[in-house]
Amino acid sequence: MNSNILLRNNVKIRGRGTRPMIFAPGFGCDQNVWQSVAKDFEDEYHIILFDYVGSGNSDIQAYNVERYSTLDGYAQDVLDVCSALDLKDAIFVGHSVGCVIGMLASIKHPEYFSKLVLVGPSPCYLNLPNDYYGGFEKEQLLGLIDMMDKNYIGWATAFAGTVMSNPDRPELKRDLENRFCSTDPIIARQFAEVTFFADNRKDLAKVKVPSLILQCSKDVIAPSAVGEYIHKHLPDSTLKMMKATGHCPHMSHPEETIFLIRQFLDEIPINDL
């Protein structure tokens, strides 16, 4: 069973340390987006990388529409990996929707986790009438899903530019676009719907693991108001506004990302916002 789980999620283990450190990608990406960051921690940590089912080199035959109809299915995959590897007190580093997946996993089994690093998190992407600003109107997200249905390659090109938001570095946009295009379009479409229409705001108060929120500048996907909202409602959290722009600092600004993660792990005081 353990080997099946590791194959299902294409789990890769590296590093020379003993303390586990799990890296979770965001929507439409595989574990390779963490390469620049994860390798910096290999001397001190036991690095665990994985792919969501339907992304990267995961077992696409393991995809189940019902299981992955909510983010809880993806969180269960993380817990399955933790159980298969007999992990305890792991550091979880997640990007975008991977942050919420990690939070949900920590709520169910907090013993697996000691700290959460949340890079560009958002508990809800919708603007809602009760004064919550998630960044998107419902019509915008419906349009995004519709474009995925009608022209997946065109969607990948446009969305990669929006997500990366570093126009002076076109190679980053191409990298992200290629990652989107390597994901099964049908699975990506369902994952997008699950991601962008989820509302996990009520789950924030249930998280008991100390957390670092890394909020990028000029992030269209998870605006600064979202980071501030999470910090306000997430117990034992620290919010750090990054100099990095866009939504993928682990790809565009790995040095700053590494520095801030190390500060948090080494328990060096960070100027909380």
From TrEMBL:
Keywords: Hydrolase. It holds the Pfam family Abhydrolase_1. GO terms for molecular function: hydrolase activity. It comes from the Bacteria. Signal peptide: none annotated. InterPro entries: AB_hydrolase_1, AB_hydrolase_fold. Gene3D superfamilies: alpha/beta hydrolase. Residues 20-254 form the AB hydrolase-1 domain. Belongs to the AB hydrolase superfamily. This is Alpha/beta hydrolase.
